[in-house]
Design brief:
Blueprint: H1 5-17, E1 31-37, H2 56-64, E2 66-68, E3 71-72, H3 78-87, H4 91-94, H5 105-111, E4 117-118, H6 133-139, E5 143-148, E6 168-170, H7 203-217, E7 223-228, H8 240-253, E8 260-262, E9 267-269, H9 275-297, E10 304-310, H10 337-340, E11 344-347, E12 357-358, E13 362-363, H11 367-374, H12 391-394, E14 404-408, E15 419-424, E16 427-432, E17 438-442, H13 458-475, E18 481-482, H14 488-513, H15 528-537
Parallel strand pairs: 1-7, 1-10, 2-12, 3-13, 5-6, 5-7
Antiparallel strand pairs: 2-11, 4-18, 8-9, 10-11, 14-15, 15-16, 16-17
Length: 538
């Protein structure tokens, strides 16, 4: 198999720092630290190829553990994939096919007369009948803790983290972003208490602080600490100090005249040069480092599994148009690899395979059974129906070939279209529901998905399409339906507006953010307090 250039570069990055560790004994009941970053793209880490973002602590997890180079979220937007992490099911099975709170059906029609299809209804909270990972761990003597973004229902639905197997919840409720208080205290989160001494603290560090506190209190028990960052979701914010450092770095690397290009629907960012986003990523990395230090300081680093992943690709279009996925096309909300492929690391201290790369395609739904297997707990295939244990891969063995499926019958805020997808071996087939056409890509040779091979490989298209449709039918899933009143002229007008109005506005904002005297507001989102405190304590 011909390996793409990005893969060879990644191999060099990992092998350069990989070291052989003494083989440790397999603990009967290991602790688990499960880290999820919101909207973090596949290429948004230095260990994954970025020359702009700096993430030494997260890189250390990758270099110590195993990197799954074909690791996927089960959806290109957050709520569906977050549900899959907890229940081990693909989205068509568990029914949360769109981010919770998005309009559908007639409600969609009131606001969006320019789309051909009406998105179907979807579940608005995690199903209470689902047997989740924390529930199974709790049954087996684990203390279970959740911190950060939930976005799988709220108190009104009786669907908070504590309704689905977590003993403790710090900050998880129905919202999908840090809208109330932003990324600096006070956070005004109804599920998390603000402390006076935390004034100016970043939200990522606050979540890390709560997670570390739980670990220290439960160091003599067995625990699951599920750290689910709100970052790096929009609206992006950072400190003046971090913005300046990354602004200067962008200048040193060379600032391109134009930073955006049109995708099918929206402009997309062409470069990793957003200094606010870079600072926000660094805040997450610092928070991850602080929790890893807590594990080490308490003698828990040798018997704690660490999982690190994201819920979907990085945001190239929509929201804050924050990043670019380098070797991948698209980002969050899109049907291409940039929307679905994510950082996917598993560190098991007692395994000899650490420091390696695993090319087998895997899914977020696989983490549930994998962790049960590593914790010597019997699997529950009736619960995690679409996930399989990756323990054989972690042990240097193989698993049976299988297809991966995606079903997103919605329009994304970032430009995504209603699609269903199958990946099998190196082939990826995308079925578009607006006009029932298919695209076929060979991911071994075309990660950018720029060469549609459907016309040249009709037999492969027919085989994959049939398998995809049979699977969807077995799921009894919901589909988008054509709106008989849709207005094609309105769509054309909107697309033209994206080119003539939105793109120039984005270019202007980018130039301003990269100018030496840029200031977003009077107090840098309150973050200057954090810098003052840091300087006083240094």
């Amino acid at each position: 198999m011909k390996r793409p250039i990005y893969f060879l570069a990644l191999m060099t990055l990992l092998s350069a720092s990989c070291k052989n560790e003494d083989h440790l004994s397999d603990p009967n009941k290991p602790n688990i630290l499960f880290i999820v970053v919101d909207d973090l793209g596949y290429a948004d880490l230095s260990v994954m190829g970025s020359e702009y973002y700096e993430t030494p602590n997260i890189d250390a997890v990758a270099k110590s553990g195993n990197v799954f180079t074909n690791g996927y979220a089960t959806c290109s937007v957050c709520s569906p994939s977050r549900a899959s992490l907890l229940n081990g099911q693909f989205t068509a099975r568990h029914g949360i096919t769109q981010f919770v709170g998005a309009p559908s059906g007639s409600e969609w029609k009131k606001k969006n007369r320019y789309t051909k299809l009406l998105p179907p209804e979807y579940k608005h909270h995690l199903d209470h009948d689902d047997v989740t990972l924390p529930e199974v761990l709790k049954e087996n003597g684990y203390r279970t803790f959740f911190a950060g973004k939930w976005h799988l229902g709220g108190a009104a639905d009786h669907s908070l983290p504590t309704d689905h197997g977590f003993d403790i919840n710090q900050g998880g409720y129905e919202k999908g972003g840090p809208y109330s208080g932003g990324y600096f205290s006070p956070f005004n989160n109804p599920q998390m208490e603000d402390q006076e001494e935390e004034k100016g603290m970043s939200l990522s560090m606050k979540l890390a602080k709560e997670t570390s506190g739980f670990i220290e209190k439960n160091k003599d028990t067995t625990f699951l600490a599920y750290l689910s960052f709100y970052a790096v979701h929009a609206p992006i914010q950072t400190t003046k100090d971090k913005w300046k450092r990354y602004r200067d770095k962008a200048e040193q690397m060379g600032i391109a005249e134009n930073g955006f290009e049109m995708e099918r629907i929206l402009p997309a960012r062409k470069y990793q040069d957003n200094p606010v986003y870079a600072g926000l990523i660094e805040q997450v990395d610092e928070a991850v480092g602080s929790v890893l230090k807590t594990l080490k300081d308490n003698g828990l680093d040798k018997n704690t599994i660490v999982v690190f992943t994201s819920d979907n690709g990085g945001v190239t279009s929509g929201d804050n148009f924050s990043t670019d996925q380098l070797m991948l096309r698209g980002g969050k909300g899109y049907q291409w690899e940039g929307g679905l492929r994510v950082p996917y690391f598993i560190y098991v201290p007692w395994l000899k395979q650490n420091g390696g790369m695993i090319e087998t395609p895997v899914s977020g739904a696989d983490l549930y059974p994998t962790l049960l297997d590593l914790a010597n707990i019997p699997l529950k295939p009736e619960a995690h129906a679409d996930g399989i244990s990756l323990k054989p891969l972690l042990n240097g063995e193989e698993i049976d070939d299988r297809p991966l499926f995606w079903h997103y019958p919605h329009y994304g805020n970032q430009g995504g279209e209603p699609v269903s997808i199958i990946r099998k071996d190196n082939w990826k087939l995308i079925h578009y529901w607006e006009d029932d056409h298919n695209e076929l890509y060979d991911l071994n040779t075309d990660l950018k998905e720029g060469n549609d091979l459907s016309g040249k490989n009709k037999a492969i298209v027919e085989t994959l399409y049939t398998q995809l449709m049979d699977w969807l039918e077995s799921m009894n899933t919901q589909y988008a339906k054509e709106d008989p009143e849709w207005d094609e002229a309105a769509r054309i007008k909107r697309l033209e507006s994206h080119k003539t109005k939105l793109m120039p506005r984005l270019e202007k904002q980018r130039r301003e953010m990269l100018s030496p005297d840029w200031q977003p507001n009077d107090d840098w989102w309150g973050s200057e307090v954090n810098e003052i405190n840091k300087n006083q304590n240094s």
